[in-house]
Amino acid sequence: MANVLIIEDDDAQRFVASFALKKAGHAVREAPDGPKGVAAAMAERPDVVVCDVMMPGMTGYEVVAQMRNDPGLANVPVILLTAMSDRKHMRQGMTAGADDYLTKPYRPDELAEAINAVLARREAQQAAFMSSVSNVVEDALEQQKESLGRQYEDQLVREINARWTRANAAGDVSFDQAYVLLADLLGPPTQGAAAELAELVKQVQQSARDTLYLFGAKHVLPYGTRLMAVFAADEATLTTPAETRIMRAASALLKRAPTGRPATVAIHRGPVMLVAVDDGLHGDQGHTMVPGETILGVDAVHDVAAAQGWRLAATADVARKLADHAALGRHAPTARGDEAVELLPAKA
């Protein structure tokens, strides 16, 4: 059981969250706005804070910033609640120090799962930290000079690597393993005014980009009239693994696809390389995808899904990795000989 503080200005939303968490066995305190929430946290340190983003007077971002500046609250996990209309501001909250976020509307069990995840992650971090400290102390007592020398060398390597990374931030990028999401939210071209179609493409792609970056995509690139997003397979936020983030991204894209359009999303995993394209004469700069097995694989799965009328599909090995987040549906071979698997919403 955890001591949870809910900061939410909407009475109905606060009641639903409180009821769900109490039912899950947690002790719950409530605050109707940011200042009262911060005061409640200072008066009695909670195990985790659930905070709405858009509140009058003090936003969720400001609540997180105040907590991170307070030594007594700096390590308290914070889960932000936001509507999709807030997606362009979401990175501000994560930069301020939030541990996770849920988009409204959410299911009560999703909130309970998010709280369990942040608490488990924080406990694991604390255990790893204590183990690391213990090992460092023992080594220092036995071989102080050697330990200090290793620490100095490690620090020097980190400094050099950090400077090298900053100097080559716009250079080529490669991933040994990455999830690649290919999204077509408009389907085959339809007849209509060119200006109207162009505006629709612009709106849909911009919204899709915001959503993909919100859920942690490292790169989002045009792929014909479609979009291709790269998620680092081995990277996770403090609480959210890559598999969870990419499934949330796919679900959000499909929910917000234009009505009446046969939207299709395909997912594959493998090595990915992007090269920097810098045209110094004209001032253009950006990245472009290098064709390879991973790109060809996700394209083939997308072709099968579109032909079969599936909304979401993945290659068989990726589908197995995503089985905790989706039910596996029909199977069909791709033109490359791989097996495409339909992904369906997991049962609540």
TrEMBL record:
Alphabetized Pfam families for the sequence: Response_reg (PF00072)
InterPro entries, per this entry? Bact_response_regulator, CheY-like_superfamily, Sig_transdc_resp-reg_receiver
Q: Keywords, A to Z? A: Phosphoprotein
The keyword Phosphoprotein is assigned to this record: yes
Its domain of life reads: Bacteria
Biological process per Gene Ontology, one example term: phosphorelay signal transduction system
Q: Which residues does the record list as 4-aspartylphosphate (modified residue)? A: D52
Q: Where is the Response regulatory domain?
A: 3-119
**Name of protein:** Response regulator
Q: Which organism is it from?
A: Ramlibacter agri
